[in-house]
């Protein structure tokens, strides 16, 4: 019993005495704290006291496109923790190739009568992808929050890292190192955050030729394939739309016998886990995951509580983290 009290108290961030009051159905505890304690019991696998078993924890869908890119588990950890603090239980829905689709997950979540859904990456960020399942959520008046830029007119609030500022920081950094042939490795053509990054790069690098822009699937392999083309075209400084893409660029350079960073400089995006442990450590633009995740949960909880939340986009400032993958441009 003492161990259970300690674990639940640590999970929720309250005292063991508060947990005890909830478990014994005593007064003097706010409803939000009470729900958070009950949710923590469920998450940690403990049975609720007999007198409390009739209450079901409120469920929130957390839909991710994948778990291989470490940025998504990072978002899941922050968002899941913030939901638990509010007495909401996250239901993790991760897509796999050939497996359950995003639309299928939405159907399953609706069947479970979820209180809301947070999407951290998904088809909403691709203009040419199917979006009927988002409209279904809107028609059912299910609270929804999107993480990072989506297509217009979906009508959901969102929290995003400012893609324009991210590219501006990366471009200025490479230019300050003397790089004149700067290229971009982006996601698919209909990917909204990539489109924003490209628009900013064109505004910054007025001479950015189209052949210095390559598109790829978000993976190390995709980055490798895209970088091989740009290296052949003489690009020495790379700005990438994700850290895995940047690692693919590093691999492509090495396969060509080109050292990073003395011959090729690479800037990633996300500052996901272990990027300071790569060889060389990756210069990247850090998304403020903690702030974004908590803001997404606040927006969702406000909707669940019945408050009117405008379908606006909250933009968060990124931060350039300079490490060992960028250096002075090679001399001709």
Could you explain how this protein is built, in words?
With 332 residues, this protein is of the alpha/beta class. The chain folds into 3 domains: 2-52, 434 Repressor (Amino-terminal Domain), CATH 1.10.260.40; 59-158 and 288-315, Response regulator (Rossmann fold), CATH 3.40.50; 163-287, Rossmann fold, CATH 3.40.50.2300. It contains 11 helices and 12 strands. The chain has helices at 2-12, 16-23, 31-44, 71-85, 102-111, 132-139, 163-176, 192-204, 220-232, 243-255, 289-304, and strands at 58-64, 88-94, 116-120, 144-147, 158-161, 182-186, 213-215, 237-240, 265-270, 283-286, 313-316, 319-321. Helix 1 (2-12) packs across helix 2. The longest helix is centred in the C-terminal third of the chain and has 16 residues, at 289-304. The model is unreliable at 53-57 (pLDDT under 50).
CATH class of the largest domain: Alpha Beta
Structural class: alpha/beta
Compute the number of helices.
11
SSE arrangement, N to C: HHHEHEHEHEEHEHEHEHEEHEE
Overall shape: it is elongated
| First-to-last CA distance | 71 Å
Poorly predicted regions are: 53-57
Largest sheet: 6 strands, parallel
Mean of all residue-level pLDDT scores: 90
Number of strands: 12
Order of strands across the biggest sheet? 2-1-3-4-5-11
Q: What's the name of the CATH homologous superfamily of the largest domain? A: Response regulator
Radius of gyration: 22 Å
Overall CATH architecture of the largest domain: 3-Layer(aba) Sandwich
Percent strand: 15-25%
């Amino acid at each position: 019993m003492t161990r259970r009290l300690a674990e639940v108290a640590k999970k929720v961030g309250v005292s063991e005495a508060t947990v005890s009051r909830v478990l014994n159905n005593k007064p003097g505890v706010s409803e939000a704290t009470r729900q958070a304690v009950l949710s923590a019991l469920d998450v940690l696998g403990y049975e609720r006291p007999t007198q409390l078993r009739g209450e079901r924890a409120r469920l929130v869908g957390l839909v991710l496109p994948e778990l291989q890119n470490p940025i998504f588990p990072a978002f899941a950890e922050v968002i899941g923790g913030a939901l638990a603090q509010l007495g909401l239980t996250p239901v993790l829905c991760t897509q796999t190739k050939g497996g359950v689709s995003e639309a299928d997950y939405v159907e399953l979540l609706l069947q479970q009568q979820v209180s809301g859904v947070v999407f951290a990456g998904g088809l909403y960020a691709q203009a040419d992808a199917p979006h009927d399942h988002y409209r279904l959520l809107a028609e059912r008046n299910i609270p929804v929050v999107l993480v990072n830029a989506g297509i217009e007119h979906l009508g959901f609030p969102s929290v995003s890292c400012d893609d324009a500022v991210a590219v501006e920081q990366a471009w200025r950094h490479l230019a300050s190192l003397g790089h004149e042939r700067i290229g971009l490795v982006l996601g698919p053509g209909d990917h909204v955050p990539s489109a924003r990054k490209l628009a900013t790069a064109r505004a910054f690098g007025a001479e950015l030729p189209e052949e210095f822009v390559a598109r790829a699937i978000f993976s190390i392999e995709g980055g490798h394939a895209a970088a091989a083309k740009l290296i052949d075209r003489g690009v020495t400084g790379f700005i990438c739309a994700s850290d895995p893409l940047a690692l693919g660029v590093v691999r492509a350079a090495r396969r060509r016998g080109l050292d990073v960073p003395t011959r090729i400089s690479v800037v990633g995006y996300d500052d996901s886990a272990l990027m300071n442990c790569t060889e060389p450590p990756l210069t990247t633009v850090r998304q403020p995951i903690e702030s974004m995740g908590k803001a997404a949960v606040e927006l969702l909880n406000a909707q669940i509580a019945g408050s009117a939340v405008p379908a606006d986009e909250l933009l968060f400032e990124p931060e350039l983290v300079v490490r060992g993958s960028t250096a002075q441009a090679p001399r001709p």
